[in-house]
Amino acid sequence: PLHFVMQCEKAGRMEYLTRYVLQSACSAAKLLHFRGYRISMSVNISATLLTDMRIVGIVRNVLQATEFDPNYLVLEITETARIRDFKTARSVLKALKALGAQLSMDDFGVGAANFEALQALPFDEIKIDRQFVSRAVESAKSRAITASIVELGMNARIAVVAEGAETAADIALLRGIGCWQVQGFALARPMNLTKLLNYLEAGKE
Questions:
Q1: How far is residue 51's CA from residue 41's CA, in Å, rounded to a whole number?
Q2: DSSP character for 71?
Q3: Residue 22's closest CA among 53, 43, 47?
Q4: Residue 113: its pLDDT value, please?
Q5: Residues 6+ apart with CB under 8 A from 109
Q6: How many whole angstroms separate alpha carbon 106 and alpha carbon 129?
Q7: How confident is the model at residue 96 (pLDDT cuts 50, 70, 90)?
Q8: Cα 161 from Cα 30, distance rounded (Å)
Q9: For the CA atoms of 11, 90, 127, 62, what is the dihedral angle to 10 degrees?
Q10: pTM to 2 decimal places
Q11: Is pLDDT at 130 greater than 90 in this prediction?
Q12: Does pLDDT of 142 surpass 90?
């Protein structure tokens, strides 16, 4: 995926890719809501698209076309270290929030600009990078970093999601330090929409 995204950026196709992914994700989430699963849908947005208001128009048009409730849409901003103009990025992000979407900083803890971006930009959520979470059980240093980010989120009143929870031991550790939102193979492997619906239905039984 990283190579594919980089090629899209070089070819100037990130807006088209983002529109397609948003359209697919919001349509899928609309179906899930119709089936009774009022879950949030998270979609990655490259920080390179925060240079002007075009991304706001893309998100607005997709929400109108799919009639998906924006309160259930989370936009995960990737590669925040590449944001060069915080003033413009803040205006774009505020406009996205005005649509009703939540904003998440992806891969928190990686890249020197993350703390600066967290302070400067209106994020509702931070996602702890998997390189810390996946090593936290064995590494005291990774465990301390993970716990400190969870505490930071609590004190700043920002939601925290731990990426890379691979095992039951990872889940137990994260619960112990007060992180209740996790992402990783310990919960489920990636799956298509049909398999997800079957998975959710099985959970009812």
A1: 24
A2: G
A3: 43
A4: 56
A5: 128, 129, 131, 132, 145, 149
A6: 7
A7: very high
A8: 23
A9: -60
A10: 0.92
A11: yes
A12: yes
> What is the Cα Rg of the chain in Å?
17
> Under DSSP, is residue 104 helix (H, G, I), strand (E, B) or coil?
strand
Q: How remote is the C-alpha of 204 from its chain's centroid?
A: 26
Q: Which of 93, 7, 11, 87 is nearest to 49 (CA)?
A: 93
CA–CA gap between residue 106 and residue 77 (Å, rounded): 6
- pLDDT tens, residue by residue, 104-124: 999 898 875 588 899 999 999
Q: Which residue has the tokens 């070089």?
A: 10
What's residue 135's pLDDT? 95
Q: Where are the beta strands (DSSP E) in 13-137?
A: 41-46, 73-78, 102-108, 125-128
At 199, is the secondary structure helix, strand, or coil?
helix
The CA–CA distances, whole Å, from 84 to 44, 51, 81, 95, 107 equal 19, 9, 8, 18, 18
**Separation CA 142–CA 128 (nearest Å):** 11
CA atoms within 13 Å, Cβ hemisphere of 70: 18
Q: Report the DSSP beta bridge partners of residue 41.
A: 73
Let me know: does 170 contact 181? Beta carbons within 8 Å. Answer: no
Q: Please tell me what DSSP assigns to residue 84.
A: -
Taking the mean position of all CA atoms in its chain, how far away is CA 122? 14
